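Hi U.,

Before I forget, here's the chain from the pilot set. I'm dumping it here mostly so it's searchable later in email.
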Amino acid sequence: MIAVATLSGPAPRIGVVLVAVLAAIVLLVAQPRVRAAAMLAALVLAPALLLADIWNSSQLRFVHRHPPYAVVGAVLVLAALAAVSVLMRRRPQVFPLLAVLALPFRVPISTGGNTSNLLVPLYFVVAAGALAWLVPALMTGVSGATGARGHGERGGSQGPAAPLLAWVDRLLSLVIVLYGLQAIYSTSHGSPSGFEVALENMVFFYVPFTLLYRLLRDVRWTSELLRGCLAITVVLGLIFSMIGFVEYATKTIILNSKLVAANDLHTYFTVNSVFFDPDIFGRYLALTMVLLGASLLYRFPRREQLAAIGALVVLWACLVLTLSRSSLGALLVGMAILAALRWRPSRALYVAVAVIAVGAAVVALTPTTFGLNQGLNGASSGRGGLVSGGLRLFGDRPLQGWGSGSFVQEYRVHNRGAGELSASHTIPITIGAEQGVIGLLPYIALIVCALICLVRGARGDPVRSALAAAFGALIFHTMLYADFLEDPITWALLGVGMALAADGRRAHASAQMRLASDTSAARSGSVSASSAAS
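Structure:
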């Protein structure tokens, strides 16, 4: 009865807007107590909305039949959460390491008649990290984690030295709040309805990933911690690749029955490892390769470079087996950005033009191999039709769109016989159709602002160059597939990148202040010497 009452009427729509506002407060407010209160409210309200949404799903059948056992299980989970948060409080470096470890792991959960692959382990890590930060902040008014920046510091987003960094937080807040507000008029028909999709995106992705981003911004990023995070990412990529090789050798798929059917219909075989989608697997491999590739462009120890080459060979071989053209393109874009930041951009441009020319020649010589004989829509697995249909939806309501989360349902309504689809596979098209110009302009501003912050000052810095290149590659991938703010890697790259950009700006400002002080002292000394001589 509680679930029915919560899902009916205006309550869930108000709840979506409320959690969006709480996420914005977490991003924008500097006072530790206020931010901690917003974190705590988001941690309580978001699961409540989620529970109401999935109350009748098969995953909660055990809860309905055995409430006492469910209560005991909830108590055990909360106890584990408290224990991990205490560990993070004492050793703050544990949070980023566990967050990177949990990034790729998803658990299928049925929601609103649809199955979503949710990052349950990451939710647990984020909740523990948030508790480690907010409990001391609420009690003492001082930032929680001992390894985090102190009171009043917001990852460099304050002060005249870095106004653009502050705009990243502001634009993220604007995007999230607009998404919540535009969910109010989203469609309620279909299964899942547009509003149900918007609610799930807000609860499953935007709110927890906002906390992830905020916590990563406050981490003190040392060389050892960055190396540890990269090592975890590479080791996971290698393990996933080995699973992919086993899939290819045995012609079996661990997850995703739809991919099994697709492989049975074609002469080629696509692997997905522990990911439900080969393109998401390919994205993870491509971004890992971009991050690892930076070690070959700078003066790292020879032993580390040889190890990086070996890992890149393995990751590349498995990336080919995913047959993800969007991921291969993202890899090229990421490597091009790396080269442009390491050397002169003109050199990277010449190489990119040569690679594109060779690729175009190969495609022209063997068009059947790449499916071009089926036309653009056939070669792109139907995505050409999705783009044109999405543009028509945008043209019908260019200002406000059809409402957050409504693309799939509205596309089916306006394109009878469209068949099964889950997204437009082009993020700007999705935003334009769902939110119109109102949502599209903040999205473009966020992309531009974030890229400038990541790239500025990154030349000569292998870590910042790798993060900027990986973010650029991810943006390219979202143009051909899906999941921008719905991917935790986006928030992780932004969180770490903005923190390092802020550290770089503070170091630069300190150096300028020392230089000015030394110059002033030298001038004062010369004046005193002249006076004494006189």
